[in-house]
Design brief:
Length: 442
Amino acid sequence: MAGPSEPVHVLSVGAWSPVVERLWAAGAETSLLCDAEMLDQHQGLSEHRSVTVTRAAGLEELVALAEGVHARAPLSHAVSFDDTSMVAAARIREELGLGGGDPSTVVGTVHDKDRYRSALTGTPAAVPHAVVGSVDDVLRFGRTHGWPIVVKPVSGSGSAGVTLGVGPDGAADALARATVRTHYTPTGRAMAEVQVRGRVITVDTLSHAGAHEVMSIGFELPGAAHPAMMIYGVPAPLTDTERRDVVGTVTSALARLGVTTGPAHTELLLTAEGTPVLIETQLRPGGDFPELTLAASGLDVYDAWARQLLGEDPLPRIREAAASAGTCAVIACGAPDVEADYLELRDLDEVRAHDDVAGVRVLRQPPYRSASARTRDDLSVTVMSTAPTAQLALRRAVRALGGARMRVTTHGGGGAAGPPPVGLEPRTSTAGGRPFKSEEAP
C-alpha cells in the first residue's frame, strides 16, 4: 500500500468518476479495468497508463486481469465508483495487497441488503426483514409484521426492483419484480421488510482510519412540486436534535458494518416522531449530492476522496468546509410523464439566464421515445438553484425548470385524437396527469 511519499498508481474498476480527473490533476498514475458496456462513459482514456476492456467477466477473471496490470506497472490502489464493481475492486485489493477501500467482507455486507439488515440487528437502526422465496413467504411476512411492506432485491443498486406499499394483492407482482436478474440486481433473490414512513434524508460521509466525517446531509422529495419529478437538496432543514440523531445513527451503523475507509452514501427515513430509520448504504458518493455539496459548502467531494487515495488525511478539510457552509442548494429534475416521442428540448438558454440558476444539465438528449417517467433514468433535464434557505432554493429551481419546454409527438394517433401533449412548463389544466405545457410537433 502506498504511503504519502510513495508512487500512486490507482486501478479504476468499472464506471467513470470525476475522482479520476482529480487524481490526474495531482499527478497520480491511473489504469482502467472495465466492461465494454461502460467504456463510452469514460473520459480521457489516453491519460491512463493502461486500459483493459472485458465483456461480462467473472470475479476471478477480473482479479487475473488486474494481476497482469500489476505485473507490468505496480499498483498502489484499486477502487470502484459504481455499486456493481465494488466487490471486484475489494477482491483485487485483497489479492494484490493494495489500498483504496475496505475488505470484500465489509463491501459484500453493505451491498447485500439481507446481510446489511442482519448486521444491524439489535441496534436502534434495526428493521424487521426476511428473505422471501415465494408469494406465501411474502404473505406470511405481511401478516406477521403488518401491511404495507417493502419487497426488494437482496442485492441491488438504487431503486431497481424495489416495490413500496405492497399489500396482499400486490405480493406476487412485487416478488416477480424483485427477482428479475439484471446487471443491477444480479442474484435473483428477494427480501421483504417493514415499511416505514418519514422524510427521506441522505448522509454523505468520508471515513478515514475508522473515523467518519459528514460531508453533507441532504434531502429527497419524490414528485413533490410539479413539473419536478424528483428534488434533491443540501443541507436538509433539520433541528439540532434531528441532526444529532441522524449523524449518530449513520456513524454508529458504519462502525457496526466495519466501514473504515472511503465515502459512503446512506439513505434513511426520519419519522414523524423524529426517529431515524436506515434504508440502505452505498460505498460511494450519492448521485447529485457531490454537486450540491460543492454549491452549498465549497467542499469538492471528489477531491476529498482523491486526496485520501494520495495518502492525505481529508477529514480536516471536510470539517473546515462544514464550519463555513451557509448556502442551500437544490436540484429539480424534470420530465414529461406520458408516453411520447420526445423530439426537442427548448428554451434552455432562457432557463440558464435566470440569476438564481446555478446549473442546467440535460440528462437525456432528444430525440427518443419513452413511456411515462418512473425512475431517474427517464428524467430529461435538471436545474440547480441556490438560496439562503432550502425552501427558497426549491422554489427557484422548480420555477426555472418550468421555463424549459419539450416538443413532442404523443402516442395513440397524435393530434386532437391522441393523448394531450406534454412539456416541462406548468399549466392550469391537469388533463392526462401532471400539469405540463408543451408544443405538439406537426
